[in-house]
Amino acid sequence: xxxxxxxxxxxxxxxxxxxxxxxxxxxxxxxxxxxxxxxxxxxxxxxxxxxxxxxxxxxxxxxxxxxxxx
Amino acid sequence: xxxxxxxxxxxxxxxxxxxxxxxxxxxxxxxxxxxxxxxxxxxxxxxxxxxxxxxxxxxxxxxxxxxxxxxxxxxxxxxxxxxxxxxxxxxxxxxxxxxxxxxxxxxxxxxxxxxxxxxxxxxxxxxxxxxxxxxxxxxxxxxxxxxxxxxxxxxxxxxxxxxxxxxxxxxxxxxxxxxxxxxxxxxxxxxxxxxxxxxxxx
Lengths: 70, 202
Fold this sequence. Notes:
Chain A has three helices and no strands. With about 70 residues, chain A is mainly α.
């Protein structure tokens, strides 16, 4: 069985993690740029729906990975 | 207990659990490769303050416990190498970044974000949450992480999503007192994030 910590150690670098944080920075900057304008209900609902999709995709990916034994 | 205060305590509780785990790793030498003694002191300070923020308020939900258990499971899944320990700790920090109080960036300051309307901050938190989840999925598909690590993240993500759902339900409620605590956590974690970026640039 693959050691997950070894995989992370070998492949997922600190640099990759920080690249993700850069993307988060972009999101924050965009929100600040939007300023004091309110968020339409539909827009907020869309964000929650997108998060639902992301979570569902992760679950599916986990199932695939398990089926492949990794 | 005020429902808003209770809600924020959940957020702070999760943060305290995560930062506590990171400090534990550090105490065990797991962060020796990447964190200097001075930064360990900062991590310790973050943990102490977050812990104090959650203490004395009847914090009685399971979010903190679940986060701590997820991290513990990740660590105990196999005997870690020291470097592996460090990477997992950073993964935990990244998971923490998906929490709603961490809608922070180097360009968009905590002050700027705090001044945004509640709905805007909530949306930013949800978008951040989705983005981190998407990146973890990509890493799993690219076989950069195992399904076990992804499962540990998913457990954290489900907990933080629950907090977001509750925040959504609280829209329209006066959050002024809760925002003061939120600002404290933001300031501290901005420092942590700045540290990570500084380390990367070396």
